[in-house]
Amino acid sequence: xxxxxxxxxxxxxxxxxxxxxxxxxxxxxxxxxxxxxxxxxxxxxxxxxxxxxxxxxxxxxxxxxxxxxxxxxxxxxxxxxxxxxxxxxxxxxxxxxxxxxxxxxxxxxxxxxxxxxxxxxxxxxxxxxxxxxxxxxxxxxxxxxxxxxxxxxxxxxxxxxxxxxxxxxxxxxxxxxxxxxxxxxxxxxxxxxxxxxxxxxxxxxxxxxxxxxxxxxxxxxxxxxxxxxxxxxxxxxxxxxxxxxxxxxxxxxxxxxxxxxxxxxxxxxxxxxxxxxxxxxxxxxxxxxxxxxxxxxxxxxxxxxxxxxxxxxxxxxxxxxxxxxxxxxxxxxxxxxxxxxxxxxxxxxxxxxxxxxxxxxxxxxxxxxxxxxxxxxxxxxxxxxxxxxxxxxxxxxxxxxxxxxxxxxxxxxxxxxxxxxxxxxxxxxxxxxxxxxxxxxxxxxxxxxxxxxxxxxxxxxxxxxxxxxxxxxxxxxxxxxxxxxxxxxxxxxxxxxxxxxxxxxxxxxxxxxxxxxxxxxxx
Length: 523
Known about the structure:
Number of strands: 0
Oligomer: single chain
Largest sheet: none
């Protein structure tokens, strides 16, 4: 599909899809900073977490569907649709509440929740399609160095997002007459998105599949969304109000099990399934995705709970707690780029995966054994080590899966990798949040409050600000130190599991052409 493209055309196409991916990654961090002001302006503090949950549900459920559609139709068309949906959602989010209550939707906060879901429908494609299109542009033997840029995109956005979000929220009012600063957090996507669309429309080849598409299975798509939606919502519920045995939680999980079970049954019988389950016969595919499932949890386990330690144990401000994640991000950028370059140069991916996981274990061990008297700069060093270890997980597991997958299934296989990473993160975040809750309850019952245990809120800022104002007292300080140490201890088990699984990933020779099938049949 890309044999006749010049290097310049490939680079311009790569620039377009990375810019689109940057949009999605930036949006997740820039919005989190603005949410406290948004909730206050739209009088929706009671629905605060649903702004994030709506995006997460939509972006998770649509990833496999984008993968399937990319195997059936022009990948340029699918990418254009994804970016366009994301931009429409961004514009609508910026307009939420401007015209008062809307029929069927309600007030501004309800509008924002709905519009964030629309954003999520597009955001799912921004991430999934980036890896799929890179696989089209570059053969596996040289793909590592370019997929390494995806980790750099995530790292850069995680640094810029909170800074830009804070600036626009606090000082953006008046930059456009009559427009509140927090609305610019959404409007900033528009010029960047239009630039990405220009690159994609003018420079990207159609990238059509080699075979005529069969009819799309819409019923399977409905079953998939009907299963994943309740599953993600159940995981995101505040477990201090809706525990694992609460009727609402059990009901949502029950719906998820039934719908996903029907999805599997239909996929096994349908001639054109959304996810071809024959992929699981491939040892590289099933082992690498199992490792990605655990690594998605390990990644969120670091970024969600580390700011809590900074605020509640060291007594740092919310600003310094947020800034402490910058070394982690820079480590991810460096590790991702370095691993990609090394794989492209020397042709071995497994050793760099294992080296990264070993480094991550060192960093997590240091975090898990931190005393309450640890210095701020020491934590930054530990986070840098974790980032360097996490970096190689961004491009290399996906590269291994793509290298072992036949071109007609590339979209499905690649999107499955993104899906397992995301769903693993959601499940692990919920489970680790329960570890935090139970440990706090044992050591200081009053600390086991929604403020301390709602991981979605913690990740988005207000908990940090409230805790920072109060400052840590000795009892709370000790309780949080022990609880977060235990969270990191359990996080170590996730990484050990990922390390063991990685040992069993067959290392196939990296193909030098996209025309060839997988390097070998792996049972």
